[in-house]
Amino acid sequence: MIDVRRIDANDKPLNPDGTHVVYWMTSSRRARWNHALDHAIELANEHNAPLIVVECLALGHRWANDRIHTFVLQGMMDNRNLFESSAVTYVPYVETKKAQAGGLLKSFSTNAIAVVIDDFPTYMPRDVAKRAKELVECSVRCIDSNGIIPLRAPERSFSTAHSFRRYIHQNVLNFISDPPQSEPLKHLNDVPNGNHIVAQCFDSVDVPLTPLEFIWRVSEASREGREALEVLDIDHDVPPVDNRRGGSVTARTELKKFIEQRLESYHIDRNHPERHGGSGLSPWLHYGHISSYEVVHEVLESQRWNPMKITPPHNGRRAGWWGMSEGAEAFLDQVITWRELGFIYCYEHPSHTSYQTLPEWAKNTLEEHSNDERPYIYTFEQLEEAQTHDPLWNAAQMQLRKEGIIHNYLRMLWGKKVLEWCPDPETACEWLIQLNDRWALDGRDPNSYTGIFWIFGRFDRGWFERSVFGKVRYMTSASTQRKFKTEDYIRKYADS
Q1: Domain's final residue, options 102, 127, 145
Q2: What is the distance, to the nearest Å, from the Cα of residue 280 to the centroid of all Cα atoms in its chain?
Q3: Strand order in 20-25's β-sheet?
Q4: Share of the chain above pLDDT 90, in %
Q5: How far is it, in rounded angstroms, from Cα 170 to Cα 160?
Q6: Are residues 313 and 405 in the same domain?
Q7: Are residues 135 and 8 part of one domain?
Q8: Is 154 a domain residue?
Q9: Which residues lie closer than 8 Å to 301 by C-beta, 6 or more apart?
Q10: What's the pLDDT tens digit per position in 6-20?
Q11: 336 closest CA partner among 293, 286, 277
């Protein structure tokens, strides 16, 4: 693992007299292609100590709901099956009362050699890592397993995708050639079991272990699973998504299907809602059930790619640099350029969800037009319930409510219309974040925030000036309907 992926969060040394190594898994929720797990295994092997992996799901965040819990617990079942065949002591834990996990983190870190934790630039995982820094008395190693480009690698900021692409062309081979282990559990020695330590940690804070039956029931996403979740103080009005199961098994299956069936036509079909041409991988990427390293690796393998196929110059162009098919190059531009541009931005700007972080030109032009007459003004409740005059927009919102996603192109339109229908741009920004973070499976993610703030001009440029939008890019439902066949899409979600 390259050093740029690791930060010693609390400047405290390893505890050589410790009894175990802890990996507190918060965002890279997988047993494969995981830099953090690699590092935890290295420490456990070095000290011949139990490796305890704690995967925790907390209650104490704003958007905790049945949808999130079900997806995460489905991933826990996959992880349990993988870890139980190794020397890892795996602890899947679901809070039943708010702040329980804080006590457990402190308890597990007592007498630990070190605590390894995921380094994630936004929302709850970022807060947990900060808390670990404050609570833990031994070394806390924050490990970046988010993408191909490490968060701390670039020595400059990027205001556009083009400028970031130039950086990728010049540097990506260095990082592709240094991946995490595809099967790290094979590299773990026969270290001692840590079950007795786990029992002591739970006993010391008087917190019960999460019964495996509870995790299994919820993971089945059945009526019994919903009933099991009812005991938790979370939002029960956001139901699980029936046709998207969380976990690494489904993630890898979806990746394989995409490469075999849709990759070659991705550059044509991805913007057509009726063709289902996208990868659909964003929920699993968000929860860390699959690594972008594995995604990129499988795409490169499918193309029989090697570095000799690269075609200079390294000038930031969107297509032709990799020397692969148009579909593969278009997909890599999404999964590396656009996804990781958002991660790096969120890392560099802790207040990335604030309207004030927009580029000055965008804030200025939106302010100049903030008092323009809006053709329609809707309340937040009307938007959330998909009660507008626009059938296409309503269908997109209903897809979000039902499936936890919106088709990529329609997601852009969805956001642009909220900007047009809100009393002012700042309110529109706030409402879009709320809609996305509550309902989207891939909400609360740097990539999601990239999409939302692009609506307002982040990573974009000025266009022709018009009412309400100023120089910010404009989109209409009418032009979208002329471009695509949307009748079936509208019909499908109008009946939801």
Answers
A1: 145
A2: 13
A3: 6-8, 139-143, 112-118, 20-25, 51-57, 89-94
A4: 92
A5: 16
A6: no
A7: yes
A8: no
A9: none
A10: 999 998 999 999 999
A11: 293
In the chain, the number of structural domains is 3
Any idea which of 199-208, 377-386, 477-486 has the lowest mean pLDDT? Answer: 477-486
Structure token digits, residue 392: 């296409």
Q: Which CATH number do you get for residue 326?
A: 1.25.40.80
Could you tell me the two tokens for 352?
A: 């990335």
The answer to whether 436 touches 443, Cβ cutoff 8 Å, is yes
Q: Residue 433: which domain range?
A: 355-494
- Count of beta carbons in the 10 Å neighbourhood of residue 5: 23
Return the structure tokens found at 448: 């999601």
374: DSSP letter: P
Name residues whose C-beta falls within 8 Å of residue 142's C-beta, 6 or more positions apart in sequence. 6, 7, 8, 9, 117, 118, 119, 129
Question: Two tokens at 152?
Answer: 């701390």
CB 424 within 8 A of CB 380: no
Per-residue pLDDT tens digits for 428-476: 999 999 999 999 999 999 999 999 999 999 999 999 999 999 999 999 9
Mode of pairing for the β-strands spanning 112-118 and 20-25: parallel
Residues 443 and 370 grouped into a single domain: yes
In sequence order, which residues have a C-beta less than 8 Å from that of residue 95 and are 6 or more positions away?
56, 57, 58, 59, 60, 101, 232
**Of 2-6, 63-67, 85-89, minimum mean pLDDT range:** 2-6
Q: Look at residue 1 in the predicted model and tell me its pLDDT.
A: 44
The predicted model scores a pTM of 0.97
pLDDT at 274 (0 to 100): 81
Give the per-residue pLDDT at 459: 97
Single residue among 93, 123, 145 that ends a domain in this structure: 145
What is the pLDDT, as a whole number, of residue 275? 84
What does the pLDDT read at residue 272? Answer: 86
Q: Say if 178 falls within a structural domain.
A: no
Question: Which of 441, 332, 346, 352 lies closest to 144 in space, CA to CA?
Answer: 346
